[in-house]
Amino acid sequence: MIDDDILTAARNLIEKCTQQGEMIATAESCTGGLITGALTAVDGSSSVVDCGFVTYSNEAKHSLVGVSQDVLAEHGAVSQQVAKAMCEGALQRAPNATIAVSVTGIAGPGGGSALKPVGLVHFGCAGKGRPTRLYHEVFSGDRHAVRKATILHAFAMINDMLSD
Fold first, then answer.
1. I need a labelling partner for 51 at 20 to 30 A (CA). Which of 25, 72, 98, 151 fits?
2. Which pTM was predicted?
């Protein structure tokens, strides 16, 4: 059900978070909960995963993680500004999380445009007492490939924050 390389990355992240006493929250749009699902597929994840917000719609982004309607209207759901608001909102709303990651993008096959092509994903990673990190990437391939690459990159962002 979950690719072996995703499970391996999830296991490594769970181990590192356990060793460092960190807890994760997610705010996911284009992955629809797959980041949280991959993490919770690993034994011992309950000591590391606090909660996951699946914020597929703009209304969910606003009501669940506090993305402002103005930011959504001005920049669109797939934007750096929304990714930042999503991870910071998830960190604020998660009861025990010390790190939150967010993803918002266009997994395809439709929905892209010249300015926001299929495969574009914006990431945010916020941590208690740490500066928020933002990144974006345009991944290639079909919907599965884009979502898989997104999950792996989200794990890498959390790992990078843990390494600082």
1. 72
2. 0.97
